[in-house]
Amino acid sequence: MTALRTDSPPPETGRFARAASGVGLAFKRALVSQCHPTMLFAVLLPFLIALVGVVLLFWLFWTPLTDWLAAQASHWDFINRTEEWLLAMGLFSLKIYLVPVIAVSILLPLSGVLGLAIAAVFVMPLVLRHVGHREYAGLGRQGKLATSVSVWNAIWVSGAFVLGWLFTMPLWLVPPMALVLPIFWWTFAFSRMMRVDAIVEHASPAERKLILERHNGGFWIIGLICSLLNLLPPAWIILPVFSALVYAHYGLDALQRLRQERTIDVA
């Protein structure tokens, strides 16, 4: 007689500690994996695409965007009053600095999320092959329509990120939202985009749903850490691939433990 038993998720009181432990282990493994020549070379693809995206976005949209922002700023009473006060004090023109800053705050994140999407769709399979053969060789691939799921996930997450970023930018004027909102949206982008791609090739749809529910907190913690690292410009070069490695280790380890929980007793 064969019995299939799936252990219940850990108690609520222990979930945070277990999630934190799993996140720490994933980061340690990702650091080791990132030093491999294959993963160092993989860094170039999303970085170069993001760099090309920056050049194209600034070349195509800088002038029309700054002109539109300058026209809109002329109707903002608060900005106009502040501008008049600064000029009356013999200081500087606020709009001269404000408009370019807003334009950069719009265009740079667009190129950044493009690099992240490229990493999720095109680099993550390389990451999964690398870590899968080396550390998760016994983990069978049961995913279905992995490419389609990955592409659709990248499209909707990128769209939600762009819309959310643009529509919440006016709130940046309310302290401390200028710091909180970018961290939140990048946490959203990292978490929602990478967690699916990390397990889509190996996990069945049912397993994927269970892992995303059970380890939702851990995925968001990783996203938060990556978004904080994203505040450091030098990290932009490696972060798309490094975040993919972290999510791959965390997701595949969660899948491995999920399958180990299923015990078969033969009477």
Automatic annotation (TrEMBL):
Question: Which Pfam family, any one, appears in the UniProt record?
Answer: EI24
UniProt topology in membrane: Multi-pass membrane protein
Where would you say this protein principally sits, based on its record?
Answer: membrane
Q: Where is this protein found?
A: Membrane
Bilayer-spanning residue ranges: 38-62, 96-128, 149-167, 173-190, 218-248
Tell me which domain of life the UniProt entry assigns to the organism this sequence originates from.
Bacteria
Annotated keywords: Membrane, Transmembrane, Transmembrane helix
Q: What is this protein called?
A: Sulfate transporter CysZ
